[in-house]
Structures
1.
Amino acid sequence: MRKKKAFRSLALLMALCMIVASFVGCSPKETPLTIWVGVESVDFYTAKMAEYVENYKVKTGKAFPYLISVQGVDTGSAAAKVLDDLDAGADIFTIAHDNLGKLTAGASAIAPIRSEALLAQINADNPETFLNVIDMSVQGTKYTFGVPYIAQSLVLMYNKKYLTEEDVKTWEGILAVAKKNNKQSVSLMGADGFNNSFLTLAINESTGKMPAIIYEGGETDNCLFTSDETVAIMQWGQRFFTDKNGGKMPTDSGWEIELRDEVSLSLIGGAWKFNAAKAALGDNLGIAVLPSFTLTAEDVKGTNIKAGTVYRSGSFTDCKVFVMKKGSNKAEYLEDILLFLSSKEVQEQSFIECANLPAYKNAATEFSSMQADNLETVLAAKQLEMFNYGIPQPFGFSTTLNFYYYSKGAPDLIREILENKESLFGTTDAIRTQLKSIENIWKTGER
Amino acid sequence: MDKNNNGIARFLKKISKPFIRFYNRFMDGSLGTKMSHFVMGSGNVYHGQIIKGLIYFTIQAGYALFMITCPKVNNTPLGYKAFINLITLGTEEGDIFTPADNSMLMLLFGVVTIGITLMYLFAYNSNIKSSYKADQDIKNYGKVTSFKQDAKEMLGNRFYITMLTPAALGAVVFTLLPTIFMILISFTNYDKEHQAGLKLFDWVGFNNFTAFFTNPTGEIAARFLPVLAWTLIWAFFATFLNYYGGILLALLINRKGLKGKKIFRAIFVLTIAIPQFVSLLAMRNLIGEYGPMQKILMDIGILSEPMSFLANATNVWTARIAIILINLWVGIPYSMLLASGAIMNIPESLYEAARIDGAKKFTILRKITMPYIVFITTPYLISSFVGNITSFNIIYLLTNGNPKVTGGYIAGGTDLLVTWLYKLTIDEQQYNLGAVIGILTFLITSIVTLVTYRRSKSYKEEDAFQ
């Protein structure tokens, strides 16, 4: 009886072992080639990829081996999404160029570009400023990681009811109209480094040089923010922001209400605020490049800069880039797709259909679509014009220093100078000391 | 001394009990029970409980397969390798062409494998107990229970186990494991410099905890105490102002002789019916520099120029006070409803007796109404305090933690621990520091809850008002 029981047990256990073993070794399903683009461009890039697949068949005589899935993501958070789950990232995805540092830290989450054809196209089609920010060093070696395809910069959005095209050429012109109507000249979207770049990155009109130096050549130490020119620009900014009709720091009500209620006559904003500005001003919305300003004797006091020196407001001129996930099992197809998606023809169509500002360096002159006369085209043209007065955000290569720029309150230090509360920054020495703190934060993360 | 020794002996006896029982079952058990120590389910099969035996065996085979084959998810192995990886947190540093080991997944899978192993051990022990019980059944009744009978039992006398098992499993999977994962992260250097899959992170002991109190550069330590202090101040005022405001409102509405009580109650309850974020954003716009409230204040001469009360306030306390006041708008109706319920349930005889004894209105309020309300609503008061410590919506929507403060380590003047945690983890990927804040918040809320509740009358005199 006992033997019988033991035999029965053994037989059953063996049968079960066989069943369990049969479940082992299931192969995973083939996944589609995935591309993440901005939510607003999904339809456009889906159509483009269908076109690419057709062309592929014609070119090679074979069908493209994978299904292609184009998905919309928030461009701002795509890098973080990939870092949260590397394997869940798309084969190709879009990011702002200053996220490249995050993605290439350590062993890098993205693959370098090695196709000569693609590298040649990148070098031929993009402005120098973009080429400088798409190269990153990984474990001591420099690689090109991003393929620029969309650009963006700050412009002036103004109320045509009060300001003419002539007025908006200079901040002094805007200030004069603001004084006449008892309004404020301009609203800022925020007081961070991006939004006060119109002052910090101002360019000397006669020399064409920017006094501020931030990580030039990708060198941490290569920063300068304490020159006489910068001090004089800050003194001009101080005068502008302490004037009751001058610049307006952000409020709880928000710039939309300030524009709509005509509290302010203009806004320094990007294309992503265009719709909100249009809603606030309607047909009175005008677009211009950021104005210039002239230093007065009061502004140059305590510096060796001459009164009457003219500066053009600067801007961070950024780009969005396509990158490839490292370790994608479709790697051999990705660079050819990028060659197509970043071609100037696709960039122009993307501008026509999605109002994406092309990164292509000669877009303003070569793209017939950019010669139109509507507000969207003006917005694009003015942004491209601003590329003569800006630099791409250079903070991407060091995530730590970028973090410290905010955590150590560098933008607030600039704001303190501009607001000059209790006349704490009434002397060039006080301003220079504060600027030195910002320069130190850029260099070391410490004040 | 003897007392201590007795205590240790009792403790040792207690923890050795399961092992002694385990040994006794092996020694006293039948061949089947002995076999079930090695092959799960064999004891049940031995006694003819085939289905039960097969279930146990499947569990063991599945676990063995899981541990030996080490299935990979996103290129990170589970199984026995997960135990090794939990200690090393990865060894492959990767380069531009090959990915680094994903330390975060290794940590997670290590925790998951420990969880699975604990569940397996539980099933293993249950398999021996089951076989031993079958031995005893044969000895006592000459037969074992069938699967059908066991199933019936699970739907009858032991139905509570059937019902509690999914809930307990859910609590383990969705609460306990993530909590353990978070606690473990606080002992690593998982931050933006050590992103999962890009750079290995490692165990750093208590470094993250000491950073909050004794960091040499003082960055986090300097910010932690002010944020903690403001969190407690906020929780105190947000709780008690709402609480007593609600009681006051309830007393006014429930006054005898007041007409239209229902209408008043409905008006105040309307604020609950409107989604909180809508109320908060409306408030933000109302009191904004160019909102209608400021226009009125300027028209009647109270303000000479627009003033920021929230994110752009020049003084941090302006924003803090404004938030506490706005919170009254969304918080008072809740406590008003609760207090109304309590007031309406106070026996009229208590009031009558008090009046006969010559008690005045204020004495009645102090001696009858308030103790009754407080007794009933104490658990609400505690949960409300804890809820306010972890209140996210109000701060996030009204000020996003601003106004900025110098040296804030990204924490603004109105940031609570929980909103700071959000910024550190979501915006800045400082997961290790976020985990420490999570643990500290958990400790604060649990201590507050336990101490206050155990000292409250609601707990001590549970039957008093029945």
2.
Amino acid sequence: MRQGTKRLVRTLLLLVAVGSASGCAAAKIRPWDRDLLAEKQMQYIPYPMVHALDEHVYFSKEGSTGGSDAAGGGCGCN
Amino acid sequence: MSEALARVEDYFVGRFTAMAGPCEVLVDSDDRARAGRALRAADKEARRIERKFSRYRSDNVIERINRARGRPIPVDEETASLIDYAVACYEMSAGMLDITSGVLRRVWRFDGSDRVPTAAAVREVLQHVGWHRVTWENATLTMPAGMEIDLGGVGKEYAVDRAAALIAAEIGDSFLVNFGGDLYASGWRRGERPWRVGVDDPEQTGEAALYRIDLPRGGLATSGDARRFVRWKGKRLGHILNPKTGWPVEDAPRSVTVIASTCVEAGTLSTLASLRGPGARDFLREQGVQFRII
Amino acid sequence: MQLGAGPGPEGGPTDPAPRAPSIRGKLKAAACMLFASGVPGMARAADAGPTTQLDITGLYYSEASRVSVIEPTARFTRLYPNGQSFFAQLGIDAITGASPSGTVPSGTTQTVTSASGTVTTRSASEIPTTKFKDTRVALDGGWTKPFKSFTPTLGGHFSREKDYQSIGANGKLSIDFMHRLTTLTLGAGYNRDEVFPVGGTTAGFTDPSLIIGTGSDPKRVTTGMVGLSQVFTRRWMMAMNLSRTHEQGYLTEPYKLLSLVDGTTGLTVGELTEKRPSTRDRTSVLVNSVYHLTENVIYTSYRYYWDDWDLRSHTLELKYRNVLADNTFLEPHLRYYTQSSSSFFKSNLIQGDPLPEFATSDYRLGPLTTVTLGATYGFRPRGSPGEWTVRLEYIGQLGDHHPNDAVGALRQYDLYPTVNTGTVVIGYHLDF
């Protein structure tokens, strides 16, 4: 438990580092540079329903779960 | 709606009036019903865009923005994309293309006379020009009182491209959209023929075509209108205004025609070229686009 | 007719104008954006009214000689011009087949009575499984609406099957910074699951034939997550999510059993139900990246997971969206997953040894590696609305075939044989 918390703090620090390092790079993107970013395939999960099916399959076959969202309903998958 | 559909040679021509000018849709087909569908789609879209973005109406988003007197106005997605496009043009032209410059028309009248506004009048109105005074964030626009925006500079070309996309979704035939001289051609006609576009003599609009352009595919737009000018110190000043000085661009070409992949791009490039006055030709050469300057 | 390069009817003097050869390219990108806001759908911009989307997916899942699942799902989404949207989703799962009961091969032909009342006869070396048949109905709904830089999202979930019920709610808040280039997301969820196994829930380490109905002891799952997404360039963005889940209540699998074997011969002398702790804390860090080449897109993700049952896992996923034509793409997909064993995983219990505090022989809590290979083909048929996707996938699961704690006769059997699974997912998306 305690070890987990330490790791959590370390991860949060890493998150902050990623965020601040990107500050200067970010300023270069103008509105008209968003053409590619605006496309449907330019999302982390372009097909959320297929993704949910995948998660469901892996949940029923593996010991780990979660990561991408706070949502998710359980199932009694054997 | 006052649409008219006629058979000319081996294609159909549909005509209607919108956005203060004559509009045409040419359809390379033998099927009257399909041509009719294309015409109705174009007519409907032209009217929709005119209604939504015309600054002469009192019931649209432009009116809400222009009467906000400093209040933030959230806008819909389509308006936001047009404003985003205008911002892109503003930045890449170093402030020469500015949708807030329309208020300069309060002091300039391009009626062929020799009346020019006083320096004081120009200075006064210039206080209300400049996109840098506007806050545009998260699809919400906040603009000081007294300023106005006008999307008319891109509206007609945008309508052409939108109408073309709608027609393409409706029929498979080759077609050409012409809204008051701003055009889009969808592709080669049957028999691998291009659409033929006559470019008017700016001095005699509608009477004599100076030359012809073959346009198989893409957008075409012309900027400049030789009938709108004032005379000053023996010079003839066209209606293209520099938003920084508040004065017309000197020695601007009378007419700049550009071909690009969409009508919107063609329109913006031709205006950008006009704003460079005598440098228009070099500018367009550098861009590597097809153009004609008169 | 010469254009561009040729002299016009009237040439003008040149001006020392600044060179700007890139304007055309920038303009093209800007125009692209302008029309990206709804040209194919059209309905979106037309008088800015609300639009509806329909998504249908169908999953067919088949594990060689074990489970097969058919899962159709339909989702309706209503989108409003101000960015607000609602969705409602109905999914049905029809599961049939057999799942490993947790016991080891008996060494002799045997007949087993399971908790669900079915009877199976099997050969000596076969992994005992429990046959089952179930239908699950799931309802999901959600709402989201952007308010300036803040986008809250709310969702609800309900699912029910013969012996399991799940009800949950979740909320999320995304905050945009730096002109929407940086997004911070905070989320939380709560789920309450209840198991009603045939014959009642088991107390753990009991003879399966003597199951006592202990009434309902729900499983409560609380999740919290923090995410940061960053657009780095016009083509590249990355996100990092940290999530923490606390589970409490009945975490045991009611139908999973442990074999009680003779310490020397390895022959089965009895069976006991498994027993797991009543809490579990899971943590995961997920890193996602999307990179847009000129047309094709590369998706990569990596997840590191750990929990207080001492299970740790690494998941690496790679997808490459390869655009074949205007309206078709082929996306190969590779996933590698590997986990270490939980602290109380045992392939069997030895008769006469003192009972451990907890034990399970569920292969999902033992050492395990999963390899997934697949491809998605997507297309928009000409002249008809909507986008179709078809995906075929192979999932191979490799357990520890001959675990160290196997005794006697059990050493000769493959206790965790490789499980091969095939899935087919068909999806259809329609805007109207």
